[in-house]
Each structure stands twice: as C-alpha cells, then as structure tokens.
Amino acid sequence: MTRDALTTERLDRVLVLHLDDGKANALSAELIGAIRSALAQAEDDDTIGAVVLHGREGRFCAGFDLGVMMGGDLRAVSSLVSDGGDLVAALYGASVPVVAACTGHALAAGALLLLGCDVRVGADVPAKIGLNEVAIKMVLPGWALTIAEERLSRRHLQRAIVNARVTGPAHAVDVGYLDEVVPADELLATAVARADELAATLDPAAYRGTITALRGPTLRRMAEQVAADRAAGSVPTA
User: Fold this and answer.
1) CA distance 155 to 47
2) CATH number, span 6-199
3) Does the pTM exceed 0.70?
4) Which residue from 155, 161, 167, 181 has the least number of CB within 10 angstroms?
C-alpha cells in the first residue's frame, strides 16, 4: 500500500474515504487496516454522521492483493482473507451509516465490500461486479457466504455465487450489489448526498440499537466464521 492509497476528506457531517492505489485498489493487510482505522475514528467522532467509501476512476476494488493470494503461503492467504472478513463485518456493523461510491470494477472482495455498506451507489460505466471465486478455483469462505445470503437477492443467489456470474452496474442493482446507478460525473456528489441525508435524518442512538438488533445475529455468525478460518490457517480451494 502506498502512503496515499487511503485519503480522507471531511464534508460537513460526512467523512469520505478515498481509495486510490493507482492500480486496481486491491486489498492488502495495510489497506484493510487503514480503512478500519478511519472507520473507527468516524465512529468515535460525534460530529460525523456517515461515511462514504469511494474508489478510484474505473476501479472500486478488484479483490485481495494477488501478490499474497498467488504467493503460495496458505497462512498468509488465510490471514488476509480473514482480515477482509473483519473489514466487511466492521462496515456492516458500524455505528454510523456507510455509503459506497462504486466507481467501476468490484470483483470478489470488492463486491463483498459493497455488501457491507448500507447504501451502494454505482457509476454508469463499463464495469464488472460480482463474486467470481468459483471461476478462479476458490470456495467463498463462510463469512462471505453469510453476508452474500443476507444482502443479495434470493432470485439471483445461486447464479451469483455458484455460477460466479459477473454483471454490469445496471444489472447489479437487481442482483443486490448496488442500490442505484448514476452518471459517473455525478457519483461522488450523489453518494455524499445520500450519506448526508442519512446523517441528518437518522437518530444515532436508534441507528446503533437497530444495527445491534437487526444485524447482530449475522455479525456474530461472521465473527465465529472468521475466527474458525484463522484457527485453521487456510482457506478452501477447488
């Protein structure tokens, strides 16, 4: 991760996290840690009412760091994937709403990041969005299946996961990866507007309580699955 792969911008009640590593915005352990740290700071700041997770042009996130995933060290792979599970759970269980500004490709772990966010706004650009693990000889870890089952449309679940179906932004709304698609030059402004609306209209204490009540069982299951993966020190492959 370069020093500026994650930068933050404060826009009134909204904290924007800009992801830009100059390449595919792959998730390394360092970038995952930086996102989690920024999210925690937002949760600890009573003047911040929502967070926006924003990718670079054409690339929201292309998955985990291939240098680790293809490096042959199974424990390193397991650790990185488990870190990813912790990140998705942190987004899904955050005490402030999180809005995704999906700038383009969101594959594998990138698609899972979308599933962890409250509201997902996508750019109307040629892009691939989806969980392609089965096509690349991987089995989704349990925590990823849990969040996918929670957020994806039941009508599309089998094709999205078992058949590794990748879609464009428009169809990704029906599948459940995105909530709306807007012109690329309106993406960030729209995402910030959605976040600002949530910050202005939602009672913080009621939001936190509802997250615990509604998402608590899913978050506990994800935590147990991540812990089991860490203990095993490996991830399932084809």
Assistant:
1) 40
2) 3.90.226.10
3) yes
4) 155
